[in-house]
Specification:
EC 1.2.1.3; Aldehyde Dehydrogenase, Chain A, domain 2; 15 helices; globular; 480 residues; alpha/beta; 2 domains; oxidoreductase; Ald_DH_N; Ald_DH/histidinol_DH; Aldehyde Dehydrogenase, Chain A, domain 1; single chain; six-stranded mixed beta sheet
């Protein structure tokens, strides 16, 4: 599999440079594809095409219903190729095929249709009666040319939650996928090329950090939508600040599962496993700190150990596999270093550790790992982005809330309790952008998603996900 061209402004073009990206299977550690890497000159060409399409082309000036119709055509085409897309994502990322089908591809397909429904009901125009008698007309207009920069962990979900609302709002978009996951983005570009969109509306540019940095700092960009690490997000925000470019950031997390004393250990363990270890723990809203009452700590630790040790780890193409490898050698080394730090700082290893999972001799695998420690440890402070959880005992509910809020991050979190009202009261006291009661946060297409503190700002999904790609204009009309 070789991809020698870039999708620039709706057409396939040879890149201006000779650099390529080698895609390596996380399972076999062998190359599976080579794709063209965008250069700064290619970024310039894509932004110029998007700028022309926005400033002079028909897309921003279509009726919203016409843009919705185009995205519904994309939704239909996407639905026809979901099996192919899932196989591509499993190959490049090592995500188990069952998870790829259900979440990596199933969720984006769902989001496309949901965004179209939201756009159909969106208040693109509004009439108000002004204080001084004038009629006030409110218009939600497209923000302009958008740079959508996405990471590798949930690539299609993250592209769709940026690209689709931006297009529905009337924006033109340059998508920059991660170097680890270019293949699914190029497959999506094939589908976009079949829609007969106006020239310049969408570009897809695989590339390294140099291409991404050039894109987010480009003077032709009106808004940057970035998902990635907090460290990189700060650099993106700084680049946008110098020219007052709008920016939204969905960054890291260190979310807490607050387990109250009336919760059932087995139910908690199953829910935490699902919310924390899907995609080998490579999800930003994973519940990686599990706060349990000290008086029942052993019950919850034992249930979690049983749950983690039951996970089937192995070949991601096998439908029976529940956890695959991490995305890269570098990521595996990073996660193993965190496991070593937990041991060095005195955390108790309940299960897992640094060795390869049983029956595996190659691939970038990490054993599902559970520590018991405290909130001062590195494994409880920093985002690991792997299958590593830390149980933290607490004395009473007030201490649990203090521990949960004692984090630089504020992306997600959950509470587990037999009393829903008690859970809702806890939810109101936790400073995060999203929260779940008796479940991990579900990516419901109608619920806005985003964080506070070092987890970023701005919201995706829901009506807010479309609003983020609009500017509000008020027009006052004098009375007779």
């Amino acid at each position: 599999m070789r991809h020698h061209e870039l999708f620039i402004g709706g057409t396939w073009r040879r890149p201006t440079g000779a650099a390529t990206i080698e895609v390596v299977s996380p399972h076999t550690e062998e190359p599976i594809a080579q794709v063209a890497a965008a250069t700064p000159d290619d970024v310039d060409a894509a932004v110029a095409a998007a700028r022309m399409a926005f400033d002079e082309g028909p897309w921003p000036r279509l009726a919203p219903a016409e843009r919705v119709a185009a995205i519904r055509r994309l939704t239909d085409r996407y639905g026809e190729r979901t099996a192919e897309m899932a196989e591509v994502i499993t190959a490049e990322l090592g995500a188990p095929i069952s998870f790829a089908q259900r979440a990596q591809v199933g969720l984006p397909a769902l989001m496309m249709g949901a965004f179209c429904d939201l756009a159909d009901a969106f208040p693109w125009t509004e009439l108000r009666r002004g204080r001084y008698g004038a009629d006030i007309r409110i218009r939600r207009e497209p923000v302009g040319v958008v740079a959508a920069v996405v990471p590798w962990n949930m690539p299609q979900f993250l592209i769709v939650t940026k690209l689709v609302p931006a297009l529905l709002a009337g924006c033109t978009v340059v998508v920059k996928p991660a170097a680890e996951s270019p293949l699914d983005a190029l497959l999506l570009a094939e589908m976009l090329g079949e829609l007969d969109l106006p020239p310049g509306v969408v570009s897809v540019l695989p590339g390294d950090g140099t291409a991404g940095g050039h894109l987010v700092a480009h003077p032709g960009i009106d808004k940057v939508s970035f998902t990635g690490s907090t460290a990189t997000g700060k650099a993106v925000a700084a680049a946008c600040a110098t020219r007052l470019c709008r920016v939204s950031l969905e960054l890291g997390g260190k979310s807490a599962a607050i387990v109250l004393d009336d919760a059932d250990p087995q139910q908690v363990a199953a829910a935490v496993r699902s919310a924390s270890l899907s995609n080998s723990g490579q999800i930003c809203n994973a519940l990686t700190r599990v706060l349990v009452p000290a008086s029942r700590a052993d019950d919850f630790v034992d249930a979690l150990v049983t749950e983690l040790e039951s996970i089937v780890v192995g070949d991601p193409t096998d439908p029976a596999t529940q956890m695959g490898p991490l995305v890269s050698r570098r990521q595996r080394q990073r996660v193993l270093a965190y496991i070593e730090s937990g041991l060095d700082e005195g955390a108790r290893l309940a299960t897992g550790g640094v060795g390869m999972p049983d029956g595996l001799s190659r691939g970038w695998y990490v054993r599902p790992t559970l520590f018991v420690g405290d909130n001062s440890m590195t494994i409880a402070r920093e985002e690991i982005f792997g299958p590593v959880l830390t149980v933290i005992p607490y004395a009473d509910e007030d201490e649990a809330l203090r521990i949960a809020n004692d984090s630089d991050y504020g992306l997600a979190g959950s509470v587990f309790t037999a009393d829903t009202d008690r859970g809702l009261a806890v939810a109101e006291r936790i400073r995060t952008g999203t929260f779940g009661v008796n479940q991990g946060y579900t990516m419901d297409p109608f619920a806005p998603f985003g964080g506070v503190k070092a987890s970023g700002y701005g919201r995706e999904l829901g009506t807010e996900g479309i609003e983020g790609y609009t500017e509000t204009k008020s027009i006052a009309v004098a009375g007779p």
